[in-house]
Amino acid sequence: MINQAKPFFLHAISSIHPGSGSEVGVVDLPVQREQHTNYPKIESSSLKGAIRATVSNVTGALNGDNEMKRRISYIFGIDPEEVHQEKGKTQAGAITFADARILLFPVKSLRGVFAWVTCPFVLQRLNREMGLYSEKDFQLPVPETPSAASRELFVMENRVVLEEYTFDVTQSEETAEIAEKLQEILFPGEEFKLSEHLLVLDDDAFRDFVTLSTEVNARVRIDSKTGTVSGNALWYEENIPPETVFYSFMFAGNVRGEGMDGLKTHEDVMSFMSKEQNFPAVFQLGGNATIGRGMLQRIWL
């Protein structure tokens, strides 16, 4: 049972590949997407697995600390193969994550290098979920589209060029308010100004960009003897670009059973996970970790 929710944002520092498996098509390894919107997402199971691996590593649970291993098992769920539990005995964890949903997506711009785009549907959904789950008073305005937070992306008059598409855009105080609120959370104290990059597009244009403007990379494995592609080792994989921003929620309930000292209630669970030394601000998720992919910055709201 869920007793408490804590919202957080995920800022992609590098390209990320939350894979959905292999498919027969132009892209062999696509990313996870919502079925009804086709927006990229990070499924809760992927998110929970990556966070559990990170927490287990930084707390020493993977290096022989059996007490910490028990603590991790009570929070994330008991693995029947773990040595401190009787084999075959399982127990659900006390923590749950929502799917990470997209908030801001970077698109190449003729001015200002790139724009962060979002849309009314995304903003309305964020507001609705914040109202349902979070005790924090956090709502974003939903401006008219297309609108910009400033004129920094404007090429001429009121025009903005994204990729090869031109949009007639107006400057909006509501969009500037979104930029100001998110700046305080995502980039506090930094000289970088979100207001110079933020655009709110209509729902259809946003869907087209998040569908067609992800990164598609060719990957090969070279045979060292011949210097050519090894066998059939040529494939195309999709990645969500760096600078993409998601949001999600961490839910905590009471520990099932008797728990252990300092870990019985949902407050204990949330307290453990909220500590920087247990759940660091930067962690890795998804495939291709050895080539620098999947680095995410976690930002509590």
TrEMBL record:
InterPro entries: CRISPR-assoc_RAMP_Cmr4 (IPR013410), RAMP_III_fam (IPR005537). GO terms for biological process: defense response to virus. Pfam families: RAMPs. Residues 10-294 form the CRISPR type III-associated protein domain. Keywords: Antiviral defense. NCBIfam families: cas_RAMP_Cmr4. This is Type III-B CRISPR module RAMP protein Cmr4. It comes from Novibacillus thermophilus.
